[in-house]
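#structure-requests
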Amino acid sequence: MTLVKVKDLSVNYGARSALTRVSLSIESAEIVTIVGPNGSGKTSLLRAIIGAIQSEQGSVTKRNGIQIGYVPQQLHIDATLPITVQRFLKLPHGATPSEITQALHHAGVPDLSASQLSHLSGGQFQRVLLARALIKKPDLLLLDEATQGLDQRGSASFYQQIERVRQDTGCAVLMISHELHVVMSASDRVICLNGHVCCEGTPAVVASAPEYRELFGTGTGGALALYRHEHDHGHDHVDHSHDHVEVNE
């Protein structure tokens, strides 16, 4: 079932074009990742889907009654604000204690309800934002570089949780990520964006596409290598018995 259909979408900021005639669709229960260089219109696309910005032309059609959860890049909260996780998650829609408990469970942090927001690590706070997006049991979860600022281990753990969320709830996921190893290991489909859709398809298809290679390179700066999560100290480990992919830097 199609949850969102974007057709010939164009978005401008004054004289600057952010998106030009972008078309795509998101189906139920799939994980789709958008990749592209800075300024390629990735965040503009997500904002257009949730209705936060107006388009110059084209359309965004959403399934009737669709629930969308959104995890932003960052959410700045006064570190001195005395508010617990449970109280934070009650805002602004008055979530019930059972909804909060379930959302924290799906986010992988079931024991944080009574913790002060100011005491959380960066990774814990992102899980709380994930729980906030899951409160109303979304059909589609949008993530805008939700692991920005986390280390590699924290990012890998977060995206593994996203896969579990999809398995447990059946929601679809549309995420922006600059971590290409995550894209290739966690996505059903990849859309390469640079103001327009350069290419799309399965991770393997996109990784071999000339448009993708032009943007991300084919040498040591952009080569893809297989890896295991347990590899030590950031050293690359090539092992063709594993299906995860990492960018050698």
